[in-house]
Amino acid sequence: MDKLVIEGGKPLSGTIVIQGAKNAALPILAASLLAEGTTTLDHVPDLLDIDVMLNILRELGCRAEHSGGTVVLDTDTAHTSHVPESLMRQMRSSIFLMGPLLARFGETQVYLPGGCAIGERKIDLHLEGLQALGAEIEEIGNRIICRADKLRGADIHLSFPSVGATENIMMAAALAEGKTTISNAAREPEIQDLQRFLNAMGAKIMGAGSDTITIDGVQSLTPCRYKVIPDRIVAGTIMVAAAATRGQVTLLNTQPAHLSSLIHVLRRAGVQIVIDGDIIKVGNASRPKAVERIVTSPYPAFPTDLQSQVMVLLTLADGVSVMKETIFEGRLKHVDELSRMGADIRVDMNAAFIRGVPRLYGATVEATDLRAGAALVIAGLAAQGRTVVEQIHHIDRGYEKIETMLSRLGARISRYSPVPNN
Length: 422
Ligand code: EPZ
Prior knowledge:
This protein is α+β, with helices and mostly antiparallel strands. It contains 14 helices and 23 strands. The chain folds into two domains: 3-19 and 230-416, UDP-n-acetylglucosamine1-carboxyvinyl-transferase, Chain; 22-227, UDP-n-acetylglucosamine1-carboxyvinyl-transferase, Chain (Alpha-beta prism), CATH 3.65.10. The protein is 30% helix and 25% strand. Strand 17, helix 10 and strand 18 (320-324) form a beta-alpha-beta unit. The longest helix has 13 residues, at 232-244. It binds ligand EPZ.
C-alpha cells in the first residue's frame, strides 16, 4: 500500500487552485441517471470515490469518460438498476443512487452500505423518505429491494438533517407525481449544487440551503452541461495546513461563504485571513491561540469533515481547547495517532480536550479515514522530523494527488509505492 513520507517544519507558502467538490460531484453524477442522453460535468476531481461512482454507472450500462476534470456521461444505454455489492462496499454513499434508479426504472436493488471507521452510517432516513414517496422496500439479508410503479409527492420530515437522505429524496421526488416537501432538510452547499443541477435539467426545486425544500415533480428531465462547485473541505484543509505550519497561502477558486464557520474558528485562534471575492489568503506567523469550545454540527455550523484537521492546529496552540464531535460516533480515531506524535489530548465520550504542546514530533502513523488521514498529513508538515503516513488510499478518496498539491506549496512530501514482489 502507498505511503507518504513528510519532512516537517517548513512553512507552506504559495498559491493553489481548489479542486471541484467530491461531495457535490457524487450526487450530481447519480442524478444524471434521471435523464436519458449525454450529461457533461466540469470541475470533477480525479479521486478514488469518483472512479468508483463512474464504475458503478458503467456497471449499470452507462458510458462514462473522465479526462481533464470533465466527465461525459451517456445514460441512454443504462439497462439495469442493480448496484453490485462489491462496488457499493467501496463507497457507502453510493446509497443515494437508490432515488434516481427508483425514479427511472421503477425498481432498484442495492446493498446495506455497512459501517466504516467513522461510524455506523445508518440509512433509515433514506428508506423512510423513499417509502413516503410510495416505494415498497424489502430487505433480504444485506440486500435491499425497492419498487415503485409510480412515485407520488409527499410531506417528509427528517428527524436528522441527513445530507444523503436529503439528496436521495430530492432526486426521487424530481420525477414523482405532485409536490414533495422535505422539512428539516440538510442545508449543505452540496445540496444547493444538486438543486441547481436538477433545475438545469428541468426540475422544479426550491429551498435548498434552507431547512425546507419543495419539489414539484415533472414528467421528464433533459441532460445538460454543468460545473461543480469548489471543494470547501479541501480548501479548509489547506487553510489549516497553512496555519499549522505558520505559512502564507493564497487559495484561488473558493467560495468563502461556504467556509464561514471555519474562518470564524481560525480567526479566534489568531490566524490572519483576508477574503477577496473567490480568493482566500491565510497567514499565521505565531503560535495559535486555543479555542475554548468547538462543536461539530450540520451546516452552516462547524463541519465534522474539518474536525480532525483543526484539532491538529489546536495541538500546537497556547492553552486548552475542547472539540466535541456530534455527527459521527467514531470520528476521533486520529487522536491516538496524534498522541504518538507528542500531542496532549484526552478524550471523554465524544469530546476531546486538547492541551497545546510546543511542538509535534515525526512518527509513523496510520490513516483510519479520509479526513483523519488529511489531519495526519498536516501534523507531519508541522512536526519536527520525519513522518510516514500509511494507508493513504483513504486520503486519495478525497484529495487529488495530495503530495503534488502540497509540494507546490513548498512541502517536503513524497509518495512511496512498494515494489510488488513478483
Ligand atoms: C455526507 O455523508 C458526506 N458525504 C460526509 O463526508 C459528511 O461527513 C456528512 O455528509 C455530514 O456532513 C458525502 O456527501 C458523499 P449524513 P452522509 O447522512 O450523507 C446519521 C467526507 O469526509 N444518519 O448527514 O452519509 C449518520 O449515521 C464524508 O467527505 C442516520 O442516522 O451523512 C451520521 O451519524 C465523510 N440515518 C449522521 O446522520 C440515515 O438514514 C450524518 O449522516 C442517514 C444518516
